[in-house]
Hints:
Elements: E1 3-6, E2 11-15, H1 24-39, E3 43-48, E4 52-57, H2 64-75, E5 90-96, H3 102-109, H4 113-121, E6 125-130, E7 137-140, E8 155-158, E9 162-166, E10 169-172, E11 177-179, E12 182-186, E13 207-213, H5 215-220
Parallel strand pairs: 5-13
Antiparallel strand pairs: 1-2, 2-4, 3-4, 6-7, 6-13, 7-10, 8-11, 9-10, 9-12
Amino acid sequence: MIRVEAFGATALLITLAEQPDDTLPLRIARLAGRLRAELGPALTDCVPGWTTLLLHYDLLRIDLPELQRRVQQALEDWPGDSDAVAAGRLHEIAVWYAGEDLAEIARLCGLAPAEVIDLHAGRDYRVGAIGFAPGFAYLGELDERLALPRRATPRTRVPAGSLAIAERQTAVYPQASPGGWHLLGRTAQRLFDPHQEPPCPLAVGDRVRFVPIDEAAFRAAGGES
């Protein structure tokens, strides 16, 4: 059941589903785009989540009852064009699957390292949310055979470009940062650049496909240890 409720003094939380599915991030992104276009400067920010959309608004331009009315109007024909929900841009990210946790992941999952790589690279992932750090895209859903809880002890530094998994999600760390996910490999591709527009090439609703490469190709693309 869809819920629309106040979230603090100047925000509105729209809960669109109880559980995520493959097309929900794209449908939420389309709803966010429509509301941005219709509300203009009255909407100061839209924050998509796996099952939610958080709207921050300007009280000097719109009040809560009017915002709720406009949101309910937009929801009347949501999710909209059913032919488009499986779309979303496809990004291919080349990965050298030599992460320091690969052997341990294989052991914990009862698989060979090559099977872990095949399972991870064998499907497309949907961008469900972007957060934690600039450009950090949460991708789902991971094959259930690779589902592992986060590490008991997070690392104080995970190198930029590290491909990781936790629970039923996978992600690439766009900058060096602390992190508690299991490391599968590395990519040389930059997934956040403040000097580019947009800074992050991935957007909610997009799809991501990981392409295995060897160390030589990783180095040739600019990858570093």
